[in-house]
Design a protein that fits this description.
It comes from Panicum virgatum. The chain is an alpha+beta fold. The chain is built from 3 helices and 8 strands, in the order E-H-E-E-H-E-E-E-H-E-E. It folds into 2 domains: about 30-105, Alpha-Beta Plaits (2-Layer Sandwich); about 120-170.
Length: about 170
């Protein structure tokens, strides 16, 4: 976990901009970040404390976690809904230390467009026969695009959908 600058012969850094939309397959990952200046040993200990905090205090299941260069560590949670709950309720405290959780794709290198409006929508009274992804896409089409459907929700009378506002997309 030592960061090295590469020395005098290091290649210059470059800015990279991607176009197109990537497939969203990692919406259950979050990166823990802190403003504190920690040694490598302290970072490793804090990463483990954060995992314990998420499991015990926040009552969320951590599938896996490991160190990450943009923060203390990256954590895979059981669902995107659990991840968004922890991100929304940031910052968190463990004793004298505090940390925040950020979406895996919104950490240090991310620049959000002011036109991108993403949020959760609850469809109440939703018919059980229509709890299939192609019907959910049809139901959400007038307001936006489905990013994620919380398909393992145990409720029988609602559907939770994370979506991008249709008005936020510019042709």
């Amino acid at each position: 976990m030592e960061n090295e600058d590469g020395g005098p012969n290091r290649r210059a850094r470059a800015t990279v901009c991607f176009f197109g939309t990537p497939a969203k397959r990692h919406e259950d990952f979050a990166i823990a970040i802190t403003e504190e200046d920690l040694s490598p040993a302290q970072r490793l200990a804090f990463m483990n404390e954060i995992q314990d905090y998420i499991r015990v205090v926040a009552r969320k299941n951590v599938i896996s976690y490991s160190p990450h260069p943009h923060g203390i560590g990256i954590y895979r949670l059981e669902s995107p809904c659990d991840r968004d709950t922890l991100v929304f309720n940031s910052p968190h405290s463990i004793g004298d230390h505090s940390f925040s959780l950020a979406n895996h794709d919104e950490a240090m290198n991310y620049r959000r467009s002011i036109f991108a409006r993403v949020g959760w929508v609850m469809l109440v009274g939703y018919s059980l026969d229509y709890k299939e992804i192609h019907f959910i896409h049809q139901a959400c089409n007038p307001i936006g695009w489905v990013i994620h459907w919380h398909s393992n929700d145990s409720s029988k009378d609602r559907v939770l959908v994370k979506g991008l506002d249709r008005l936020a997309v510019v042709d």
